[in-house]
């Protein structure tokens, strides 16, 4: 039996291009029919590790961080909405949308790995944030996400107060940063090669085809 191609995805839950990048990768995998030949694992990256509990208005945040004008932001959101729609994902931007702290979400994604539910939980959380106007830093929202993907909510939420679980996520963030990863999504294939950003479906198909043929 051929060894599966390991795909490590370094990303954040509230990163729109991470969602688009994954949906394009997913489409490439489906179009090639290689679902049973790849093994995906998600890794934590916080775009805003110092984000306070109350979060920050998205427009204010983007202006502060990137210096984008209002017109640029409107165009960017429309572009992401259109690209997402073409991939079957709904970006629902609204005036009071807030960027939130995602550390707890990453702790739960680490927990989900034990049950092979990482991708399911990742997409549930990113859908809650971008499509359903939900604050994915709130424990009630996180609890519902765990339930939605069939995980033990009490056990998962207990990890949020577990020093070892929190330390493990911090350590993993540090590991990938020390490898030079400072933008997401970064998608690593068999720990040998990587692509950064939401590449086109055809690019992913080419990379996957080449690597799987060598397995």
Structural class: alpha+beta
Given the C-alpha coordinates, what overall shape results?
globular
- Alpha-carbon Rg, integer: 17 Å
Following the backbone from N to C, one meets helices and strands in this order, namely: EHEEHHEHHHHHEEH
End-to-end separation in angstroms reads 10 Å
Report the sheet-strand fraction: 5-15%
Order of strands side by side in the largest beta sheet?
2-1-5-6
Instruction: Characterize the main sheet.
Output: 4 strands, mixed
Would you identify the regions where 5 or more consecutive residues have pLDDT less than 50?
none
Please give the number of β-strands. 6
Helix proportion: 40-55%
Number of helices: 9
Please, what is the average pLDDT?
96
How would you sum up this structure, described in words?
- The protein is of the alpha+beta class.
- Helices cover 53% and strands 12% of the residues.
- The protein has nine helices and six strands; from the N terminus they run E-H-E-E-H-H-E-H-H-H-H-H-E-E-H.
- The chain has helices at 16-32, 58-66, 70-86, 103-113, 118-131, 139-148, 153-158, 163-178, 201-214; strands spanning 5-11, 38-44, 56-57, 98-99, 186-189, 193-196.
- The strands form two sheets. Strands 2-1-5-6 form a four-stranded mixed β-sheet, with helices on both faces. Strands 3-4 form a two-stranded antiparallel ribbon.
- Strand 5 (186-189) and strand 6 (193-196) form a beta hairpin.
- Helix 5 packs across helix 6 (139-148).
- The termini are close together.
- The mean pLDDT is 96.
């Amino acid at each position: 039996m051929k060894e599966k191609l390991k795909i490590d995805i370094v990303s954040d839950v509230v990163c729109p291009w991470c969602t688009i990048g994954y949906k394009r990768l997913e489409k490439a995998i489906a179009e090639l029919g290689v679902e049973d030949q790849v093994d995906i694992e998600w890794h934590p990256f916080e775009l805003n590790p110092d984000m306070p509990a109350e979060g920050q208005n998205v427009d204010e945040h983007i202006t502060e961080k990137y210096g984008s004008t209002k017109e640029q932001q409107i165009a960017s959101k429309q572009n992401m909405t259109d690209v997402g729609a073409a991939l079957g994902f709904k970006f629902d931007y609204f005036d009071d949308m807030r960027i939130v702290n995602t550390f707890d979400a990453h702790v739960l994604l680490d927990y989900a790995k034990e049950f092979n539910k990482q991708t399911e939980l990742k997409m549930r959380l990113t859908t809650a944030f971008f499509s359903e106007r939900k604050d994915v830093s709130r424990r009630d929202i996180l609890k519902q996400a765990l339930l939605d993907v069939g995980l033990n909510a009490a056990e998962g939420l207990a990890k949020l107060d577990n020093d070892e679980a929190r330390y493990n996520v911090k350590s993993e963030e540090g590991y990938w940063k020390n490898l030079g990863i400072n933008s997401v999504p970064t998608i690593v294939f068999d720990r040998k090669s990587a692509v950064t950003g939401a590449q086109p479906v055809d690019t992913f198909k080419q990379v996957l085809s080449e690597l799987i043929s060598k397995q």
